[in-house]
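Quick start: what a row looks like.
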Amino acid sequence: MSNAINWFELPANNFDRAVDFYSKVVGEELQKLDQNGTQLAFFPTQNNGVGGCVTYGNGNKPQAEGALVYLNGGEDLSEPLSRVETAGGKVVMPKTPIGENGFMAIFMDTEGNRVAFHSMK
């Protein structure tokens, strides 16, 4: 097994608001698809990396508790983290060192999901 995680979905109450939020935060447009009444917006991936999407219409509900998804913070997570609040989210744990494993930060998205960033710098 090359990755423990293969796919993730971040549920939305308001699909367009969530897609706009994540497009601003990650600095790239998410690709939208309507799949039999379920709306999906895919995060960018490279080289067959772990993929994920924002989703609406499949019965999933945003939540602040439970599993924590870590998004790739790029070279330095300070950059996407700096866009969270201007895009409508809330930083709940600032950039925090985690020893030899780099840095992490946690935020709440516009939908009420608790999400994190990770980077080595």
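That is the whole record. The beta strands are 7-11, 31-35, 38-42, 51-56, 69-72, 90-97, 103-108, 114-119. The chain has one domain: 7-119.
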